[in-house]
Amino acid sequence: MPVTVLLVDDEPLVRAGLRAVLEAQPDIEVVGEAADGAAVIPLVRRLRPDVVAMDVRMPLLDGIEATRALLRTVEEPPKILVVTTFENDEYVYEALRAGADGFLLKRARPAEIVHAVRLVAEGESLLFPASVRRLAAEYGDDGGNRAARDVLERARLTEREAEVLRLMARGLSNAEIAARLVVSTETVKSHVSAVLAKLGARDRTQAVIAAYESGFVAPG
């Protein structure tokens, strides 16, 4: 089955460019478009896309608020890929905090766009981990988020789960973590699932953000 994508951007040329790149792939299908975040929820409910590629800055409802609303109101929400002009942008970090699964630069090469959509859809690796670390270092609470610290403390991660979370934060995929720890990929998947459940995180991106915000992992 192809990965289905909903494009949300107030610039028609951006949407057209993304559509052209993605629909050139046999395993990706663009199922709809919207010009503002306010249209996301009804379209997601009707089209059930796997991934929403959404501009972070839009005139009526921006990508941050649209992400919050989507995750709050839609059961089994799609993956959310924030599309942005600037990489080092507080808006991007706030979108990740709000629940976005990753971000993509509008100037990205076609191969990078396709890779980002596939990676976010699979959910087995962190997209652009070095960039997420830089954003966390500049805009995160750097261990000062009491709520995030409380979550980590209550999670009571085992030693192996803590090790897996640190490797997730470095951007390693499940297969790479398995090779590093000399265990099976299925074992790693079980550990990742346990970490997400204990942290109350919907995916590894949110788990990594919590790790940075709590000071469990240093973003620098």
From TrEMBL:
BP GO terms, sorted: phosphorelay signal transduction system; regulation of DNA-templated transcription
Entry-linked SUPFAM superfamilies: C-terminal effector domain of the bipartite response regulators (SSF46894), CheY-like (SSF52172)
4-aspartylphosphate, modified sites: D55
Residue ranges of every copy of the HTH luxR-type domain listed in the record: 150-215
UniProt keyword annotation of Phosphoprotein present: yes
PROSITE patterns per record: HTH_LUXR_1, HTH_LUXR_2, RESPONSE_REGULATORY
Entry keyword set: DNA-binding, Phosphoprotein, Transcription, Transcription regulation
Domain annotation Response regulatory: ranges: 4-121
Pfam families xrefs: GerE, Response_reg
GO molecular function: DNA binding
Name of the protein in its database record: Two-component system response regulator
